[in-house]
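Support reply, case 0932

Customer input (verbatim):
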Amino acid sequence: MTNTVSFPGISDKVFTLNRVAFTVFGRDIMWYGVIIATGFALAAIYAVRHAKGYGLDPDFILDLLIYGLPSAIVGARIYYVIHQWDYYSQDLSRILDIRQGGLGFYGGFIAAFLVGYILCRKKKQPVKPTMDIASLGFILAQSVGRWGNFMNCEAHGGPTALPWGMSINGGTPVHPTFFYESLWNAIGFVIISRYSKKRRFDGEIFLLYMAWYGFGRMIIEGLRTDSLYINGTGIRVSQLVAGLSFIICFSTWAYKIKTGKYTPRMTQQKEEENK
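Our regenerated output:
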């Protein structure tokens, strides 16, 4: 379970990557899972620490994590399996083996959103502020989680002559698209989290996150060689969804800001206090 990786345009050094992080009771624990879990843990810490700034109870954030995390994993797996059914239908036991990778972000996002919405209604918590803080948690977790793809030597792009091209097992250098997305999300997290202190209305951070991530994913997905396609077409599923997310969310945000047709955050808070 090892691969070699090098960046010949930058250095002659060759890295040997073992996909197994450690072994517990004879069972291999993969770096992919460890890194994904680390991303979620950092997102959880951030969300809990900033919950009150969004008018949310930190305990509610913990409830979201308890229900949302497994839902996101299941949703991400279902999304991926659906678009790779020809492979998984040959051996259904493969569906449960996520240690080798195979998670579709948008499936996880949809599942987590639905579970979060239900919890908000059940526990009488505001939906839009929850979406805002969850968005910052998502983009932070994504920035870290993409390094799980690096350890698996997957989610890379096609051949490139750029200096930072990544050679896998001595092959032709390819685009390290996992790094592109990790960097894009890290920059997005810094910018949006700073802007969030001056956010003008609830739900604004969610719109900015979806627009930022959608634009970056739309471009980066076009470089990848392992994209999921709509059956019978040459259309990349994630690129289509990302593009629509960017257009819809950015347009909505821009329209609200330009026209002023939104309820200011302070007004929303006062209305909730008077209920």
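We compared this against your earlier run and they match. Two observations from our side: Strands lie at 2-6, 14-18, 20-24, 27-30, 167-168. Residues 19 and 235 are 31 Å apart (CA to CA). Please reopen the case if you see a mismatch on your end.
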